[in-house]
Design a protein that fits this description.
The protein is an alpha+beta fold. It contains 12 helices and 11 strands. Strands 1-2-3 form a 3-stranded antiparallel beta sheet. Helix 6 crosses helix 9. The relative contact order is 0.06.
């Protein structure tokens, strides 16, 4: 009885197993059909994928850059199209070949870091940038088939080529020109440091010190009626960065007295400063950049030292306690001394050079009681002058001699009359 029951159960299990085998055989047959179709799809998709990869510039634009930075430490360079193409393996026309190719593409592609942009977005961005392209350059989008990716072609002095090709060519040309400029700049700096410009900078620094000395010698001889005198102090600014301060010290030394190491240090320092100026003003001519870098006036500061009887010398500031008249006198003293010192310097080369200055609307906003003092300063500094004014006559005891021309205008008759007179230090006489 037990054997009969086991037999019935075994027959039942056998029937179920046969049914499962039938179902699995049917599933295997369907899977085999689907597998064959998928394999056929893979093989047929491989040429299409290669056609997509052949879109000009696509692979080079998608693959990361060749190196993080270039030799000069600037921007990263894009990978050359030929280099990008060599990163993909050559595969057979099989599903395994497609798998290897897609795996290679996925391993090269960086993860997207922004929202994907469609063709319309690319076209809109291109339209916005076309107006900013340099002269002779243009760019336009190309898409022979709607199912293929869009690409950009650039037209310019280098010819017509895909955008990544043009980018790589432009970077290569930029590196070449930059290296040529660096070599020429280095040679120009060496010539400059050993040539006329370096010597002239040293001469200018020396001449500036001499001029300040001449002005101070003139200022030593004049004071206001209150006994107030001034002196000038021209010195290197204390807020210069250490590198520039060292450069200024080397430039102040005559070229013949500099050592080879000092010349190298000076060349490197000036080259760096010119490179910084070039980055700030890339369109500026080289002559202008050199002029800015070697402008010795920006390296120094002029201070006015006030000397009052019974008090220590002090630097003149906005907070210095002086009356309005004293402020006017003190402000005119260094100006007149600068003119006198310049005339003294010219007199060394040409003793007959005139010593005069022009004063348009002379001593405006200066109270009349200070006019004799200001005219007297000009006389003390041995300066002649031509002054125009609506209210000044210059007829003061501090002026030994003066020629005066008064302009009279009659609006009714529409004429202008000139009346001439002379001042002899005591009274004014009308010219006949």
């Amino acid at each position: 009885a037990r054997a009969s029951n086991d037999l019935d159960k075994a027959r039942h299990d056998h029937g179920q197993a046969l049914g499962a085998v039938g179902r699995l055989a049917s599933e295997v047959e369907g899977a085999t059909v689907r597998c064959r179709k998928a394999q056929d799809d893979c093989v047929s998709a491989l040429p299409r994928l290669r056609q997509v990869l052949a879109v000009p510039g696509l692979l080079a634009a998608a693959v990361p850059v060749e190196a993080p930075t270039d030799e000069a430490g600037g921007e990263a360079r894009p990978m050359a199209p030929s280099s990008a193409a060599r990163l993909l393996p050559a595969v057979d026309e099989t599903p395994d070949g497609l798998g290897k190719l897609t795996d290679a593409i996925r391993s090269l592609m960086p993860k997207p870091d922004r929202v994907p942009v469609g063709g319309d977005g690319v076209r809109q961005s291109l339209r916005q940038r076309r107006d900013s392209l340099g002269a002779g350059w243009d760019a336009e989008d190309r898409q022979p088939e709607d199912s293929l990716p869009l690409h950009i072609e650039v037209t310019g002095p280098l010819g017509r080529m895909p955008l990544p090709d043009a980018t790589a060519r432009a970077h290569e040309q930029l590196r070449t020109m930059a290296s040529l400029l660096s070599a020429k700049q280095d040679q120009a700096l060496r010539n400059l440091l050993q040539g006329l410009i370096a010597r002239e900078v040293a001469d200018k620094l020396h001449a500036a010190k001499e001029l300040v000395g001449l002005m101070n010698r003139r200022l030593d001889t004049v004071t206001t009626s209150q006994g107030i005198g001034v002196a000038l102090r021209w010195q290197r600014r204390d807020d210069l960065d250490p590198a520039l301060a060292g450069t200024v010290a080397l430039l102040a030394k005559p070229p013949d007295l500099r050592t080879v190491d000092e010349d190298h240090a000076l060349t490197a320092a000036l080259s760096e400063r010119i490179a910084e100026a070039r980055r700030d003003e890339p369109e500026a001519p080289y002559r202008q950049l050199v002029g800015q870098v070697l402008d010795y006036r920006t390296w120094h500061r002029m201070s006015l030292i006030l000397r009052r009887p019974g008090r220590a010398d002090e630097r003149l500031t906005r907070r210095t306690a002086l009356s309005e008249g004293e402020k006017k006198m003190v402000s005119y003293l260094p100006l007149f001394a600068a003119v006198a010192a310049s005339c003294d310097a010219m007199a060394e080369a040409e003793p007959a050079a005139p010593r005069f200055l022009l004063l348009d609307d002379a001593f405006a906003k200066v109270s009349e009681d200070n006019h004799p003092k200001l005219f007297g300063l000009l006389v003390e500094l041995d300066l002649d002058f031509i002054a125009t004014s609506e209210r000044l006559w210059g007829t003061h005891a501090t002026v030994p001699e003066l020629a005066i021309t008064e302009v009279l205008r009659d609006p009714d008759l529409g004429v202008i009359v000139l009346e001439h007179s002379r001042w002899d230090g005591r009274r004014r006489r009308q010219d006949p």
